[in-house]
UniProtKB/TrEMBL annotation:
Protein name: Uncharacterized protein
GO terms of molecular function: nucleic acid binding
Domain of life of the native organism: Eukaryota
Native organism: Ignelater luminosus (Cucubano)
InterPro entries: RNaseH_sf (IPR036397)
């Protein structure tokens, strides 16, 4: 009678059902010391089948060990020859391996692991070029660094170095230079001291400022091509209106806004903002203030007037 062999799927199903029963039982169904009996019961096979499989696998393990020993003994000469070849290859490729290791070892760019002294020297060179009123670009800075023997790198590496030490390629702005003039810095310090003293006296700060808008003002840019039909005829922007308003920490103050038209004599709308208009706005603001306050406004020459 031919032997009945269970398929792998059925064996897996039997094993899964066995572990499910153990889970429901909260422990093993049979003593753990009865190893063969547990395997037979779990897989639902005969004890004869288990013995046959174990005997067959043990014979395969013994044959594999013997074959491995024979291969080791037969390949000893080949191993010795390979050792000689490898020794020759190592001597010829040692330089290439060193280059490869050096390449893999560097995980950072050359400009990120520079000494701080070199980074400070680059900053000093830039500040000195500005002091001598020279143009600071990549090409001019690179020439200056090489001339002073600070560092010798490529243009792209210098660009990365400048980013790393906090520099950006921006449009020149004279406003920053004006704001840092000694006279302006001194005035700013005096202003901040006054603000601190008034804050200590529990004053409310009201900020008064103005802006402007044209009646026919529009967008400065539009989608165009080379065809004349996509070009807009730009006319006058119309009458200019000056808008004033005041606000404090709680927002804009109701009832103090002021809008009036002006005929500009120059491009600077401050010509229309004379002392009379500002004094009127100041009085209008004072009537709506509910606590002792300080009005802060621009320091333009046209806006200077005495507050009674």
């Amino acid at each position: 009678m031919p032997r009945c062999v269970l398929p792998v799927d059925q064996l897996i199903k039997n094993l899964y059902d066995y572990f499910t029963k153990e889970k429901s039982n909260l422990g093993p169904l049979m003593p753990v010391t009865q190893m063969r009996a547990r395997v037979v019961y779990a897989l639902q096979i005969s004890e004869f089948t288990l013995k046959t499989v174990l005997k067959r696998t043990q014979q395969k393990d013994v044959e594999q060990i013997v074959s491995e020993d024979e291969e080791v003994s037969s390949n000893e000469q080949d191993v010795q020859q390979l050792v000689r070849v490898n020794e020759c290859a190592e001597t010829s490729t040692s330089k290439e391996m060193n280059k490869t290791k050096a390449y893999k070892k560097r995980a950072k760019l050359k400009t990120t692991d520079l000494p701080e002294s070199i980074k400070c020297s680059v900053q000093d060179v830039i500040y000195d070029m500005y002091f001598r009123k020279q143009q600071v670009t990549l090409s001019t800075l690179l020439m200056e660094l090489k001339a002073r023997e600070v560092i010798d790198i490529s243009c792209s590496s210098l660009r990365q170095l400048l980013f790393n030490i906090g520099f950006k390629y921006l449009k020149d702005n004279n406003r920053r230079a004006l704001c840092e003039k000694p006279a302006v810095v001194q005035q700013r310090q005096v202003f901040l001291r006054k603000i601190r003293k008034l804050e200590a006296k529990d004053y409310n700060f009201v900020y008064l400022d103005e802006t402007w808008i044209f009646s026919r003002g529009g967008c400065k840019r539009s989608w165009q091509n080379n065809d004349v039909r996509s070009v807009k005829n730009v006319g006058g922007e119309g009458k200019r209106f000056i808008v004033l308003h005041a606000g404090d920490k709680n927002g804009f103050i109701d009832g103090v806004s002021l809008v009036f038209s002006s005929k500009p004599k120059s491009a600077d709308y401050h010509d229309s903002m004379n002392a009379v208009v500002h004094k009127m706005a100041k009085r209008e603001t004072s009537t709506y203030l509910k606590q002792k306050s300080v009005i802060v406004l621009d320091n333009a020459s046209k806006l200077i007037f005495e507050i009674g």
